[in-house]
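User: I've been trying to design a sequence by hand for this structure and keep getting stuck. Would you show me what you'd pick, starting by listing the structure so we're on the same page?

Assistant: Good idea, let's start from the same input. This is the structure you sent:
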């Protein structure tokens, strides 16, 4: 089992607990008995324009926020966080090609778990072409 699979299992259990607390808060209890659940949690987490209630599904929301941090590291490589993480985890390669080490920190493993979200929507701008690996980098939209 990979590092990401293990951390996802742990996090999924925590998310289920948090979602249960949110659902309990929403529906509550009366005289020690739980109130009726009038709609499913899945319906509650759908967007309002899709006839849901707009609650955040925490696991997906967390992945999006982690993906946003990866995007910031890609677009602002001169920030302190980007420089520190690059020096420690991927000093000689792209963030999209680096390997996840067994002794990586929990936050780095989490960021790498969201890296594929960013990579799917990212294409390389060629520029002068010196740092582009034409057979490995995603640089033509629509091509794998």
């Amino acid at each position: 089992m990979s590092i990401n699979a293990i951390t996802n299992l742990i996090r999924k259990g925590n998310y289920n607990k948090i979602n249960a607390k949110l659902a309990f808060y929403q529906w509550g209890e009366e005289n020690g008995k739980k109130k009726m659940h009038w709609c499913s949690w899945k319906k509650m987490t759908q967007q309002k324009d899709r006839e849901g209630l707009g609650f955040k599904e925490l696991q997906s929301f967390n992945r999006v926020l982690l993906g946003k941090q990866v995007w910031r590291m890609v677009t602002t490589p001169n920030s302190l966080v980007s420089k520190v993480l690059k020096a420690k985890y991927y000093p000689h390669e792209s963030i999209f090609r680096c390997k996840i080490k067994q002794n990586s920190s929990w936050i780095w493993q989490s960021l790498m778990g969201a890296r594929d979200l960013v990579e799917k929507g990212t294409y390389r701008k060629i520029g002068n072409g010196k740092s582009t690996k034409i057979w490995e980098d995603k640089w033509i939209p629509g091509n794998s």
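That's my pick for every position. To get oriented when you compare it with your attempt: The first helix runs from residue 3 to 27. The radius of gyration is 20 Å.
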